[in-house]
Design goal:
218 residues; 6 helices
Length: 218
């Protein structure tokens, strides 16, 4: 490749690299902000319920919990799906950056050994850059890494909120404390698991359109 072509290519690639890095920064900031807003809303609601619990009967409190936590669950779902969209966008940008880094090495082969970050445009490479390789000894390292992400955290919070809704409903139906706790726990686990599987499939479909040009075994 002629020197002038290398210079033009590096200029274009550098500009695109910077743009993708800004996209990653924006998606991470947005996802963290949305998760923080959800936690703030839930915390404020819990504080309000704590004050109300001092002046109303148990049945009224359970009814308020049912209504309030149903609304919080709806807000949580909106937050969850948006954070999944942001995660997909972040992974797409990460794949693009890895692809550009690979081309950097092709333009100047002597620099390939200098790069610390990944040079392969595979989802596994993006996960490695995110530190998920620290769970190598785990049976499902990718599952653990996904759960520890923002979307996984929001899904966990939503599951707990769903469990509180189920527990409050059992209380209104005059179920005992043991049954309320049991139903709430089962509901929480079921919601977390179901949405975890669904969101994993959504994530894979979102990343699938980007074909792999520089796999690890190349």
């Amino acid at each position: 490749m002629a020197e002038v072509d290398k210079t033009s290519a590096l200029t274009i690639l550098t500009a695109e690299h910077y743009t993708l890095q800004m996209v990653r920064t924006a998606t991470i900031t947005d996802a963290a902000s949305r998760a923080g807003q959800l936690l703030t809303t839930i915390s404020a609601s819990m504080i309000a319920l704590g004050f109300v619990a001092q002046v109303v009967p148990a049945k009224v409190l359970l009814a308020l919990m049912l209504v309030l936590f149903t609304g919080l669950f709806a807000i949580g779902l909106a937050t969850l799906f948006r954070t999944v969209e942001l995660t997909i966008e972040d992974v797409q940008a990460g794949l693009g950056i890895n692809r550009i880094r690979h081309v950097y090495g092709d333009l100047e082969p002597s620099t390939k050994d200098v790069f610390v970050r990944q040079m392969h445009d595979e989802t596994a490479a993006v996960e490695a850059d995110a530190g998920q390789t620290g769970w190598r000894k785990a049976r499902r390292p990718r599952l653990i890494g996904t759960t520890l992400g923002v979307a996984g955290f929001v899904n966990l919070v939503n599951g707990l909120v769903a469990g509180a809704i189920a527990g409050a409903a059992c209380g209104l139906l005059n179920a005992g404390l043991t049954w309320s706790i049991t139903v709430g726990a089962v509901t929480a686990v079921a919601v977390i698991s179901a949405f975890g599987v669904a969101l994993g499939r959504i994530g894979r479909r979102g990343v699938a359109p980007i074909s792999t040009r520089y796999p690890r075994n190349q």
